[in-house]
Amino acid sequence: MSLAQRVALVTGASQGIGRTCALRFAKEGAAVAVAARNQEKLNELVQEITGAGGKAAAFALDVADEEQVKSGIKAAIAQFGKIDILVNNAGITRDQLVMRMKRADWDAVLQTNLTSAYLCIQNVIPSMLKQRWGRIINITSVFGQMGQAGQANYAASKAGLIGLTMAIAREVGSRNITCNAVAPGFIETAMTAVLSDELKQSAIKQIPLGRVGTPDDVASAAVFLASEEASYITGHVLNVNGGMLMG
Ligand code: NAI
Asked: Does residue 12's CB lie within 6 angstroms of at least one atom of ligand 1?
């Protein structure tokens, strides 16, 4: 599944799933534009990729900020000439029962997880339309498919991403641009490191494969959806959840 000659933009690439996606895309031969807020962490990632013989450049931006998304994507296109693959991965949680949830935490999660994807898609699509080739991959969540108590904002944002995925897939399918979602279950990253051992153990009991997932498990799905081999798949939600949710 070679991604040679492709240019990928990965948001939330400074750590976790996004970082691993960037490394895996680079390993498959893509040039990678890595985006997140932390310039220092992005620079380290770029060094790691270029040190291994790959191509990468850092674009520090806040995905919730429309102007930063616009100028960051413009700069990435100026540097690499195009964007073939967009991975909307940046995401946050602000968990609270809905009765106590602050409006600011609702807005922050919706803006960072959902509005950001709309903004990034809108800004990369002209480049994809021009070349009649594109892959858009939205990282949603099992909790956007089944809900989760204490995560009304997060679950709504991730369910919204699934609707966005299907709408975009219909809008741009005729131009040979696919839009799919990857729905991870429980993945070992900083986002889940804050959960108690007790909660982790009870989560594992709900996972038929009997283990939590790794960022590489998710990145493998993203690499596949970006590949030529996935050219007839669009509007799909690919579960990477160890069987936690089926059907
Ligand atoms: P993480 O917290 O390790 O990484 C999140 C990344 O998003 C970081 O690079 C962070 O800097 C970036 N980010 C957050 N807000 C941003 C903003 N405003 N602008 C730019 N970048 C921003 O979390 P993880 O686990 O790697 O999550 C990646 C994605 O996978 C998220 O969308 C998350 O919702 C999703 N996911 C994670 C699961 C898990 O179990 N870890 C399960 C299901 C989905």
From this structure: yes
CATH code where residue 23 lies? 3.40.50.720
| % pLDDT > 70, the chain | 100
157-186: pLDDT as tens digits: 999 999 999 999 999 999 999 999 999 999
155 lies in a domain? yes
In a domain, 202, yes or no: yes
35-63 residue pLDDT tens: 999 999 999 999 999 999 999 999 999 99
pTM: 0.98
Compute CA distances 102 → 41, 96, 111, 225, whole Å. Answer: 30, 8, 14, 36
**Tokens representing residue 200 in the block:** 């982790």
Task: Indicate if 118 belongs to the active site.
Answer: no
Tell me which residue range forms the domain holding 36.
7-237
Listed residue (111, 90, 94, 114) closest to 102, CA to CA: 94
CA of 137 to the centre of ligand 1 (A): 14
Q: Does residue 213 have its Cβ closer than 6 Å to ligand 1?
A: no
| Residue of 25, 80, 154, 186 marked catalytic | 154
Tell me how many domains the chain contains. 1
The reply to whether 2 falls in a domain is no
Beta bridge partners of 35: 11, 59
1 pLDDT band, cuts 50/70/90, is low
Site to substitute for ligand 1 among 61, 71, 89, most atoms within 8 A of C-beta: 89
Q: Is 239 helix (H, G, I), strand (E, B) or coil?
A: strand
Q: Is residue 245 part of a domain?
A: no
